[in-house]
Amino acid sequence: MKMKRMKITAAAAAVGVILVLVLLIGLSCSRSQKFRLVKAIKGPFHIKVHALGQLKSAVSIHVGCPSIRRLWSYTISFMAPEGKEVKAGDLILSFDAKELMERMQLKQSELNTAQKELEKIRLVEQEKKERLELELAEARVKTKKSRQKTKQPEELVSMNELKKLRLDLELAEMQEKLVSGRVKNQISGMKTLVHTQQAKVKRLEKEVRELQASINKMKVKAPKAGMVVYALNWEGNKKVVGDRCWWGENIMELPDLTRMQVKAAIPEPQAGKVKIGLEVEIRLDSNPDRVFKGKLKELGRIFRTKSHDQPAVVFDAIIDILDPDPGNMRPGMAAGVDIIVSSRENVLQVPEAAVIYHEKGLFVWKKGFAGKKMIPVTIGARSGGMVEVLEGLNENDRLLVRTAGEGAGTGRGASVSGENR
User: Fold this and answer.
1) Residue-wise over 151-168: b if at least 16 C-beta within 10 A, else e?
2) What are phi and psi of 371, to 5 degrees?
3) How is residue 129 annotated by DSSP?
4) How many whole angstroms separate alpha carbon 270 and alpha carbon 249?
5) Tag placement on the chain: N or C end, fewer CB within 10 Å?
6) Rounded CA gap, 264 and 403, in Å?
7) DSSP for 146-170?
8) The pTM is what?
9) What is the pLDDT of residues 8-36, one digit of tens each?
10) Measured between alpha carbons, how far is 64 from 334 in angstroms, rounded to an integer?
């Protein structure tokens, strides 16, 4: 009999503790009188992985330092304002061309000197040629006269005189031949000298043209219409006028706003849940009420530290935006993404704000005909502000959700089962 009384007393004490607990929770949750009604519903339940990222264009024209021979370091002298809409041919970027201008002035001076030298060579060599041609003409006249003298009748000229005339003819012919050879050598030598100098002039003209083209390349024009977006360097900074840069460095881009993507950083704990091809919901920080559709296109191959300020380990993911809005989307805009990793149909669920978290369990305020009362519940997975209800509620049960007061709808220390616990 004594044992029975002890059992009854213990049971009564346990019931009393539960009643006190419920009363305390009720008192705690009734400090604010602002509530709204929600229903427990059955429907599709999506398990999502949330991540943050930035917009980027799938197709961008990268603009940087031009390729110029013997020039590796550049100084920016002009940058079109970021966000400016430009047309094809508009000036968007320029660099200091002082060094190239000095090179061109030096080469132009060399070219002028070479051109004058070519003209001088032509005049001098032509003068030599004309002088030799005059000597050749005189030698031919002398040879002709000597030949005429040797044609006199032998009976009118002594033998010695005839021999002398014939020797004079041989000497005249040899002199003519010698001068003729000198004329030919002069013509050949003149051609060689002129050709060599002409080659020098052409080489210098080519170098001047190349330097002028290089100077023109220091003013970069838009290859197509688009919007100017400054590129980030490895430190996350953008270039400004006066900065030095190197050949091959990307300074700005002209993105195609009709083909946009999100580059998101997926937290390491979620790595095993995502895969290529999953559907994605995208919300821009500038317009969180609008949801864009996307598809996971590419996953990073290695994990990395998110940043110096945020040492969390993440890996990158590229998400194609299936319905881009060129009028409102710009590269670099912040966005949140929800990757749908799994879906189930006909799942009983309520807003997570309806669940009251307490160290002794989880409860909801259920609205009935006689008023409201605290109902213990068992929940499963959570996703997108909704929570799966495993026990304690039925479809269409009406619940009260606090809209004001500290701790409304959330709490700490609750043990929650489910895929994303």
Assistant:
1) eeeeeeeeeeeeeebeeb
2) 135, -150
3) H
4) 34
5) N
6) 32
7) HHHHTTS-GGGS-HHHHHHHHHHHH
8) 0.55
9) 555 555 545 444 444 444 444 444 457 78
10) 25
